[in-house]
Write a structure and sequence with these properties.
The protein is mainly α. The chain has seven helices and four strands; from the N terminus they run ααβααβαβαβα. 45% of the residues lie in helices and 6% in strands. Helix 6 (109-112) links the parallel strand 3 (104-105) and strand 4. The longest helix is centred in the C-terminal third of the chain and has 13 residues, at 125-137.
Length: 139
Amino acid sequence: MLDTNVVLSALLFSAGRLAWIRQAWQCRQLQPLVCKETVSELLRVLACPKFKLTASEQEELLADFLPYADVVKLPAPWPVLPACRDDRDQVFLVLAHVGRADALVTGDADILAMREAFPGLILTGDELAARQDASAGGQ
């Protein structure tokens, strides 16, 4: 699964370092997970003035992501997991756990700080690329 910043980077920067992730989900080589909370955050961030996106552009970007994502309903209350130091990021840990994600891809320092509590789960985009390359080489 991908955190909001990774999704944004893949959608907004077609020549960026994470642009390959967009193609990976389009080709079904990577399966994003979303929940109500993470979609709400993505909607909020896409509407931020700093991106200068029109409503139509926001809809196009969402249409290039959401159809490829699996929707996971988070239980209430959330399962007890090690707590992220930024409580707004806890949803990504919960979603990865409930959705049984193979990886939580992030560049967020608060989530990356949780690696010891979630061995092998939390990766940067570059680490995911290396993992994908290694698995492709083994086929």
